[in-house]
Amino acid sequence: MELYKIEELLEKYFQGETSIAEDKELTNYFSSSNVAQHLEQYKPMFGYFSLAKQETSSQKGALISENESKGLKRIWWSAAASVAVLLGVGMYVYNTTATNTSVTTNELGTYDSPEEAFRETQKALALLSGHVNTGIESVQVIQEYDNSKEKIFNQ
Which partner from 17, 61, 132, 147 sits 20 to 30 angstroms from 36, CA to CA? Predict the structure, then answer.
């Protein structure tokens, strides 16, 4: 092959404009024994590329089996997740129906006289008011902290 043609192909190669056939021509040229003296520096590069192509093609079989095992693992994890979700939904339904039946059997919230119902309602509202007041006190403490922080950091 003519030397100027190889030099032109090298120039195109480094520009990324060569075709597959031209790449093969370069690989064949640099794998031969009659490489020009000033082009000897490129010989290891093209030798490495041909060696790397052989290595990746031999490893494709191993990659396929890894992908298949990943697919099987994914299927098993999906099945396990489905079972977990079904168990969770089943337990939720079981517990809510058990709670509903216990409420109806005890008949909570029904009183014979309006006075007794009024007293029980007052007790429940007092209990609720006490918890709400505790929550408001906590918010006031946080608000006091924020005010102190603003005074410190704004100075």
Answer: 17
